[in-house]
Write a structure and sequence with these properties.
The structure is a homodimer.
Chain A lengths: L3 H4 L10 H21 L5 H8 L3 H7 L3 H26 L2 H18 L3 H10 L7 H20 L9 H14 L5 H20 L3
Chain A binds a DNA duplex (30 and 30 nucleotides) through helix 2, helix 3 and helix 4.
DNA sequence: AACTATACGGAGGCTGCCTCCACTTAGCAA
DNA sequence: TTGCTAAGTGGAGGCAGCCTCCGTATAGTT
């Protein structure tokens, strides 16, 4: 009941009417562009205007701004999860982890607003609405961490939550700044995890 | 000329009229409370109301929201800078650095909005307006880093900008979340810096 | 007491958020 | 095809916040 308006696409619930699906797609496209241009605070009325629908329609499909942001970036997050698997298959554990961290940061740097999403994912009070997405990325990160920890390459007390918060923080701090700093911060965090594996104090 | 309206207190420019100073103080007090309660996005009109002044007066003293935020937190940042000196005098370099990092994070956690300030300080386009503040904290952090690097306790290629971005990121990621994660992240970053000192790859 | 630079404050114009409901239409059944 | 109706639309309207402008008030001076 909580997710009737949000989750109905072609998947679980009742299939959307043709025009509804068209409008939803148009809004998502307009939102993706607006968020890239102006960040997640872009005007919803402007998005509706760009999409050629009424503001009411936008709200029908996405009751809150967060719902909209979430759907816009869902695909992008899924792609990050896939990347984790691919890297894990193609590289030794520690390298896979590091590469993924760098990709995450680089990716988020290109997409203003990703950051806000992450924050939402970490802290939010409305967790039910996005447990899938949250779960997916935690599984992906957890796998990377487990493999590296299992190989004795990083310390064992780092959770996927830690890492995501850390990466999220790096991205936030550099959202509009120079991106080489982000890479150096990644390197520091990564070394910090390695340090714990070799010698604890 | 750029800072006439902002910086005029009792310091450089022409002294404020008595009523003006009173009002400015009232606005600052109301803003400090509002920012703590509702974050930096608190309503300016509400702040003016709480301060017992008109909205016009608020805008006369603080032409933009950022000006207000900046003045509210200036003292707090200055206190952090002082802490850096005290810690540096009372502890060995690496310990001083770590303690300061932890204090920074804990402090920011208590003050929602500090984070927004930091972001501003790092990225802003209006740098002139706050060069002093920015300079102060960079000097403080730089000193901590230099001493620890000079003692061979951390890697030498970390700049004060890196560290501030890193800490800012940690704070942002944890602005509303559990605070023990922030401490663990600090520990990771700190170890990352130490790792660089011991063995570079 | 008179004067004036300085400061006050809030009305008003604007934009964005969100709700509500009278109208339209896709999809179906006869 | 034709109707029917559940599903969907869209924008007016109420509200709140942002910021500007300018007529009014007063601190400090002469």
């Amino acid at each position: 009941m909580t997710s009737t308006d949000t989750a109905a696409e072609g998947v679980g619930g009742k299939p959307l009417r043709a025009d509804a699906r068209r409008n939803r797609e148009a809004v998502l496209a307009a939102a993706a562009e607006a968020f890239s241009l102006h960040g997640v605070e872009a005007s919803l009325e402007e998005i509706a205007r760009q999409a050629g629908v009424g503001i009411g329609t936008l709200y029908r499909h996405f009751p809150t701004r967060e719902d909209l942001v979430l759907d816009v970036y869902r695909r992008e997050v899924e792609r990050l999860c896939e990347a984790a698997q691919e890297l894990s298959a193609a590289h030794p554990p520690d390298e896979a982890l590091r590469l993924w961290m760098e990709r995450f940061v680089g990716y988020a740097a290109a997409k203003r607003g990703m950051v806000g999403l992450l924050r939402t994912m970490m802290n939010d009070h409305r967790v039910e609405l996005m447990r899938d997405l949250k779960g997916d990325i935690h599984v992906a990160v957890g796998t990377l961490l487990d493999r590296a920890a299992g190989a004795g390459q990083i310390r064992t007390d780092v959770t996927s939550d830690d890492l995501l918060r850390g990466l999220g923080g790096i991205c936030m701090a550099n959202d509009t700044g120079p991106s080489d700093t982000a890479l150096r911060l990644v390197s520091i965090v990564f070394d910090g995890m390695r340090y714990g594996a070799a010698a604890r104090h």
